[in-house]
């Protein structure tokens, strides 16, 4: 860290002191002057008029002093002058006047209230020595030593007769760096305040381009008035490129503003053609001859220029005539054959292999006129010319020049030119051209041959003797293009510009200037930075993209063209250059205990492109001009300091200076006078350091630091007030105090500016409000983005990522949780230079608000709230990435095939061709012995065991590896293994059985209409020799008609006695009950009764004995038998086994699931109804029926409108059941209404059920599970 010397601080203090006090002194002197004048006027009514101002020689009130500074640090020099009229102050270096325009950005000259300052940026040890030579006041002679340099300040009187203006002019908004294209129109505008503003007396304004005063013309229009100075360039050409300066004469001297105008080439008519030449000028004007010169254009991606065409046009005409038949390679062309007395304009076009450029701007008009010389009326034959020599020599032409004869004779003269080469015979050069000018270009000269020339004067009276011949002249390029510039160095300037400097070429060869090119690193595409040769060896390149990296190169330019490119500069990251920070401001008092004060301040608005490392505090007693330096340092993270050793009851003023790597900045304005009196109030002191983050179009996050003085109790919260900029009507943002030091304010007006203040609260009340914050505009930065939460696809780590819309090379990302910076944490990983925050094993304790701020930017920041639902979602995704699985459609399963083979299989949702897997049986991997295969298209992996035995029982596992994904599924065949083994054995036997004659359908029966029981079976794979025999209780049955096995089926009829319905025996029933009633039974009705019930597939038969039973017994058994028949009919019908309530009460926006178990054979159909309307499955109403057993209706996000009567209808071909449920939905926030479900069971019904159960057990002991009904 560098700090300016104490001498510099002293002069800064004195400058600020005099700048503030001189205004008051001037007002006081003016008041005294007016009072004295009135007094004298009253005492001397007849007085002699004297001038209002007595001339006074310039004088130094505060002179310059020596300074010692570090190399490449800014230097500021101050002096105060006086004089009548106000003197002009000029600064000199080494006896040469300092002009800021000669070195843009190097020097800055200011004049405020008579305090003159010179600011030198980046002082260099290589500067030559400076001396002081006061021109007006010779008695003053001051020297400023800078190791190797001395600087001088010289005073000039401002003569009122030259500059009579008494206007005070203050420049406000002025034009900045401007970019244009050839053919466009550009206006440079500067706004100002003029006092007094007189319409008939505007300020005196002058416009300069590169130190050349501009005058109104067709190419430049100027206006001044209404507080606006304007320069309009109606038709841009590259001739207009340069540094434009507005200079305004004011009462105290001049006010200036400068900015660069860049003009790029217009689009050529032919692709690849070069840009137009510029700065066409005409020299050496004679009667029929002129010399035209121009500057070559820059070529970056175009082909090299091969030559130029020059066109001329007579004034008053529109036709352009080409002057040269073939392109000339040098940027000069002698044009002869002009008409004496005519005015001409000239323009130039460049040529390369792709085409011809657009024409340049035409030159100013010139008139071909004869050069005056002495005329002797008595002389007839003229004398010969003298001093014949070559003024221009190159490989294209040679220009001969001579002095006309004096005296030249009475008549007009012309000239003849002769040349001689190897022989001694002189040859006439201009045989067909009559020369009237003492200039002539010679083109027809052979290469590598020397020529001598002589000239003869001719008039109507005769010819003179030949002149003395010239020395030998050879057609060569004496200079050629310059050598390449050296040591190109690029450094930072602003966020969109760079400062490029270089060493001049070793061989300048009449240098015109330089072209600077730039290229993005890695692109290999160069673009021009300037389009008109720049004379100096340092240049500020504008229009660069912040955050990009560029390299630069330079070419030197002269009349012969462009030099080779220099070496590229080192890559430069575009960002603002380092400078000292601006002054802190708004010093406030946070606490005072009677002997010390705690102060805070607002950080500098400009940090100088570097982190502020420390602050310096100066203090003084109020009403005193002496300052003493407080030696303590205040680190950037605090922005407050406690000043000790103060005197109770004394008022103090303070100043703050900020320091960074570039040095110590300017001091702040003195604070208010603070009284050193102890604070004793019960309420808290003011909060401080209000800052703004996450600025959006309608919201902003306000942060602050808690008060240093807490008052009589701990601080319990804060109120935030806001007002629009310029208004003092503050309104409270929050109705209740917030317990933390931040608050997000919403509902702002887009584009409006607001100011805020904070008030702390404790048990005693609301404390003093903080200082009003700086205004903040509710408008998001262009390209603003928000934090994104995601999961790394490679590692599975959960992260927060922020893509900043603006970032510099020194920017860092500061992450915070609940707006407290994350420094060290075992649960979070973040790097200051990274835009990503990574969670380490995220858990519920990581929930909260996370924010990020990007340093060295204009408040780029964002926040993100991690809630429980989002965290669960991210954790699931993270687990799937960290532990990838192969998704399975079905788990490992088995099936028994026809031959008794057992197939184990699993199906994945997706498999790749590189999938690997293995089957493990009882902890042993299967390598051979079984058929194992897979199908990528279906995702099925299978293994087949042809002979499944008891030894194959156990645990079966399949392990799948597909890339990084894994999966495993197991199947245990221990309990179920016996069934599988039995089934496999059965299938094997069946397969063997079916190899010979066998039953394709086993024995079954049906009852015919005549009550005959028909036993039926079907045969397969029979032969003629096959024998079929019927048996009953292992005794062969002899039938009347032998069965025919070849028919494929055999039947045996068994006649039965059928009971018909009559008055004695009534038979009836319903869909759920069958019954028979014997009216007035007698002994004749004794016997065995049988009932057969057929369901289409099989028959159910029940027999009961009525022999020897009493009447009541018979009737009751008849009732029991009817109940039993009822069971037989209802056991296979569709019905609801259980699971549904009568009434359901639920709060809205919850999910309701109605689930029940159904049964029936065959599997029943299930239909749901709401208010007797069928419910269709959709996004909210989801109907499922799984395994033929479990039926459910799920309603997602229920509403009050979903209340009603729901029912389920379960039915198959044997019947069904209809069950109703009442659903009641109540609103959130209301108490749950009472719900009652009534189930009525009559007492006698309970005893009846028990009785039926016991009787059925007696009637059919095999029905031991009858209690499941």
UniProtKB/TrEMBL annotation:
Residue span, Ig-like domain: 58-170, 787-867, 997-1107, 1141-1224
UniProtKB keywords: Immunoglobulin domain, Repeat
Origin superkingdom: Eukaryota
Example of a GO cellular component annotation carried by this entry: M band
UniProt keyword Repeat, yes or no: yes
Keyword Transmembrane: no
Biological process annotations from GO: sarcomere organization
Family annotation (InterPro entries): FN3_dom (IPR003961), FN3_sf (IPR036116), Ig-like_dom (IPR007110), Ig-like_dom_sf (IPR036179), Ig-like_fold (IPR013783), Ig_I-set (IPR013098), Ig_sub (IPR003599), Ig_sub2 (IPR003598)
Limits of the Fibronectin type-III domain: 276-370, 384-479, 484-577, 583-678, 686-783
Gene3D superfamilies the record matches: Immunoglobulins (2.60.40.10)
Protein name: Myomesin 2a
């Amino acid at each position: 860290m560098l700090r300016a010397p104490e001498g510099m601080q002293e002069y800064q203090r004195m400058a600020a002191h005099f700048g503030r006090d001189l205004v008051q002194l001037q007002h006081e002197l003016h008041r005294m002057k007016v009072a004295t004048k009135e007094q004298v006027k009253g005492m001397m009514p007849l007085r002699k008029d004297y001038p209002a101002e007595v001339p006074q020689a310039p004088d130094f009130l505060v002179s310059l002093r020596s300074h010692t500074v570090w190399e490449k640090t800014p230097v500021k020099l101050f002096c105060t002058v006086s004089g009548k009229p106000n003197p002009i102050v000029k600064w000199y270096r080494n006896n040469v006047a300092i002009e800021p325009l000669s070195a843009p950005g190097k020097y800055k000259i200011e004049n405020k209230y008579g305090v003159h300052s010179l600011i030198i940026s980046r002082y260099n040890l290589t500067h030559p020595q400076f001396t002081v030579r006061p021109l007006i006041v010779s008695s003053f002679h001051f020297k400023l030593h800078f190791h190797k340099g001395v600087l001088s300040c010289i005073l000039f009187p401002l003569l009122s007769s030259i500059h009579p203006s008494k206007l005070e002019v203050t420049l406000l908004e002025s034009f900045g760096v401007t970019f244009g294209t050839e053919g466009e129109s550009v206006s440079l505008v500067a706004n100002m305040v003029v006092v007094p503003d007189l319409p008939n007396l505007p300020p005196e304004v002058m416009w300069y381009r590169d130190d050349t005063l501009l005058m109104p013309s067709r190419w430049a229009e100027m206006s001044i008035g209404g507080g606006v100075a304007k320069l309009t360039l109606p038709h841009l050409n590259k001739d207009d490129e340069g540094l434009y300066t507005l200079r305004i004469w004011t009462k105290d001297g001049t006010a200036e503003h400068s900015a660069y105008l860049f003009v790029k080439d217009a689009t050529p008519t032919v692709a690849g053609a070069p840009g137009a030449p510029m700065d066409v000028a005409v020299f050496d004007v004679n009667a029929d001859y002129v010399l035209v010169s121009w500057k070559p254009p820059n070529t970056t991606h175009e082909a090299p220029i091969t030559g130029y065409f020059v066109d001329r046009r007579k004034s008053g005409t529109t036709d352009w005539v080409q002057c040269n038949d073939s392109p000339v390679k040098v940027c000069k062309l002698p044009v002869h054959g002009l008409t004496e007395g005519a005015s001409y304009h000239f323009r130039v076009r460049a040529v390369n292999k792709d085409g011809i450029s657009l024409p340049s701007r035409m030159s100013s008009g010139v008139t071909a006129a004869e050069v005056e010389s002495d005329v002797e009326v008595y002389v007839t034959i003229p004398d010969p010319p003298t001093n014949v020599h070559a003024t221009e020599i190159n490989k294209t032409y040679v220009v001969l020049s001579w002095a006309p004869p004096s005296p030249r004779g009475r008549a007009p003269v012309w000239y003849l030119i002769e040349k001689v080469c190897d022989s001694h015979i002189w040859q006439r050069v201009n045989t067909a051209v009559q020369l009237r000018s003492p200039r002539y270009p010679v083109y027809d000269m052979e290469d590598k041959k020397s020529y001598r020339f002589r000239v003869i004067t001719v008039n109507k009276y005769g010819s003179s003797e030949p002149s003395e011949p010239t020395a030998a002249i050879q057609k060569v390029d004496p200079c050629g293009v310059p050598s390449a510039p050296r040591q190109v160095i690029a450094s930072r300037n602003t966020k969109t510009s760079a400062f490029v400097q270089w060493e001049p070429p070793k061989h300048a060869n009449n240098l015109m200037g330089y072209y600077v090119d730039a290229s993005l690193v890695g692109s290999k595409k160069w673009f021009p930075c300037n389009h008109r040769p720049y004379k100096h060896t340092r240049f500020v390149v504008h229009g660069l993209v912040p955050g990009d990296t560029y390299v630069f190169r330079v070419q030197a330019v002269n009349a012969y063209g462009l030099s080779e490119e220099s070496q590229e500069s080192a890559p430069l990251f575009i960002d603002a250059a380092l400078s000292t920070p601006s002054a802190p401001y708004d010093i406030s008092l946070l606490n005072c205990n009677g002997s010390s004060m705690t102060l805070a301040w607002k950080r500098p608005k400009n940090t100088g492109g570097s982190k502020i490392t420390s602050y310096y505090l100066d203090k003084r007693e109020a009403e005193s001009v002496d300052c003493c330096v407080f030696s303590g340092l205040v680190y950037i993270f605090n922005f407050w300091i406690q000043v000790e050793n103060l005197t109770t009851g004394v008022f103090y003023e303070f100043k703050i200076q900020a320091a960074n790597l570039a040095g110590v900045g300017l001091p702040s304005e003195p604070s208010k006078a603070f009284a050193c009196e102890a604070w004793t109030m019960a309420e808290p002191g003011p909060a401080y350091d209000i800052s703004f983050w996450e600025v959006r179009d309608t919201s902003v996050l306000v942060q602050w630091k808690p008060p240093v003085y807490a008052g009589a109790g701990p601080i319990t919260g804060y109120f935030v007030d806001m007002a629009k900029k310029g208004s003092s009507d503050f309104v409270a943002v929050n109705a209740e105090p917030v317990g933390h030091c931040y608050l997000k304010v919403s509902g702002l007006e887009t584009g409006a500016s607001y100011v805020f203040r904070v008030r702390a609260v404790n048990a005693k009340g609301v404390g003093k409000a903080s200082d009003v914050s700086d205004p903040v505009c509710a408008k998001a930065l262009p390209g603003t983005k928000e934090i994104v939460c995601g999961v790394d696809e490679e590692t599975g780590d959960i992260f927060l990522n922020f893509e900043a819309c603006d970032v510099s090379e020194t920017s860092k990302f500061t992450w915070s949780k609940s707006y407290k910076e994350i420094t060290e944490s075992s649960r979070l990983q973040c790097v200051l230079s990274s835009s990503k925050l990574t969670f380490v094993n995220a858990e519920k304790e990581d929930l909260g608000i996370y924010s990020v701020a990007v340093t060295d930017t204009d408040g780029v920041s964002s926040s993100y709230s991690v809630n429980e639902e989002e965290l669960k979602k991210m954790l699931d995704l993270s687990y799937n990435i960290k532990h990838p699985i192969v998704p399975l459609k079905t788990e490992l399963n088995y099936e028994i095939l026809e031959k008794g083979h057992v197939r184990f299989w699993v199906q994945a949702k997706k498999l790749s061709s590189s999938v690997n897997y293995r089957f493990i049986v009882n902890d042993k991997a299967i390598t051979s012995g079984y058929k194992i295969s897979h199908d990528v298209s279906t995702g099925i992996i299978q293994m087949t065991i042809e002979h499944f035995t008891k030894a194959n029982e156990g645990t079966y596992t399949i392990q799948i590896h597909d890339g990084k994904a894994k999966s495993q599924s197991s199947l245990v065949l221990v309990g179920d293994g016996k069934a599988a083994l039995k089934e496999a054995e059965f299938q094997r036997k069946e397969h063997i059985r079916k190899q010979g004659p066998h039953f394709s359908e086993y024995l079954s029966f049906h009852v015919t209409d005549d009550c005959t029981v028909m036993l039926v079976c079907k045969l397969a794979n029979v032969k003629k020799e096959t024998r079929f025999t019927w048996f009953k209780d292992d005794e062969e049955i002899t039938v009347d008609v032998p069965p025919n096995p070849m028919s494929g089926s055999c039947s045996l009829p068994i006649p039965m006695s059928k009971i018909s319905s009559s008055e004695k025996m009534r038979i009836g029933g319903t869909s759920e009950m069958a019954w028979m009633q014997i009216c007035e039974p007698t002994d004749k009705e004794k016997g065995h009764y049988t009932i057969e019930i057929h369901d289409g597939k099989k028959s159910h038969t029940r027999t009961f004995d009525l022999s020897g039973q009493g009447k009541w017994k018979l009737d009751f058994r008849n009732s029991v038998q009817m109940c039993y028949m009822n069971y037989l009919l209802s056991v296979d019908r569709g019905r609801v086994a259980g699971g549904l309530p009568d009434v359901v009460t639920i709060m809205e926006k919850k999910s309701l699931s109605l689930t029940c178990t159904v049964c029936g054979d065959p599997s029943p159909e299930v239909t749901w109804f709401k208010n007797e309307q069928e419910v269709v499955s959709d996004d909210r109403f989801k109907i499922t029926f799984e395994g033929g057993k479990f039926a459910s209706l799920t309603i997602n996000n229920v509403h009050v409108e979903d209340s009603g009567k729901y029912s389920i209808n379960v039915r198959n071909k044997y019947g069904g059941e209809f069950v109703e449920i009442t659903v009641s939905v109540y609103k959130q926030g209301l108490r749950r209404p009472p719900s009652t479900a009534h189930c009525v069971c009559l007492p006698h019904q309970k005893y009846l059920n028990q009785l039926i159960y016991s009787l059925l057990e007696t009637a059919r002991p095999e029905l031991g599970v009858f209690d499941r009904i």
